[in-house]
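pinging the channel bc i need a second pair of eyes. not urgent but kinda urgent?? the chain im working w is below, pasted from the shared doc
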Amino acid sequence: MKPFVKADAPVWQVRRLLEPGPIVLLSSAFEGERNVMTLGWHMIMGFEPSLVGCYVWDQNHSHQMIRKSKVAVINVPTVEMASTVVDIGNCSGRDVDKFEKFGLTAEPGEQVSAPLIAECFASFECRLADARPIERYNLFVFEVVKAHVATSPRWPRTIHYRGDGVFMVSGENTSRWRKRFRPDMLDE
């Protein structure tokens, strides 16, 4: 391996390398109102129970809806929806019903009151598991209570945000290092 030549960089740019997860559409509902927002800041926080942390800025319309309802759905779009995903992020649910505006099909959840998005590859019904980090960090810690995942393709092409209006499409899969991988070390 050859070492990289590195230069100082602004710390606010670290997100460009640390945000590998796909962009998702976070849907919510409260007191007859529904919304969907584009979200790039999320992380796995636990396996059992399945916990996901989502950063939802307190100025986002969805923030109070999710805080009050204590539920949301994390929907995973594919690259075919990229233009719609970006456009959803460029408008506010205060001004428009995004499901209607973007022709999204809202399906009822089995465990939560927030709608699933039929056009997305996967939809994860979530309940708020820990509200403590919301006040200080705008971090919602959700427990996934029901998962709905398309059966094909096995590995969908998803979109990922690199910052500053730059996106990446998920690349090829490889099993080249599978023999070296030790799943038992995930518990260590």
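so The mean pLDDT is 92. and The radius of gyration is 18 Å. — does that match what u expected or am i reading it wrong
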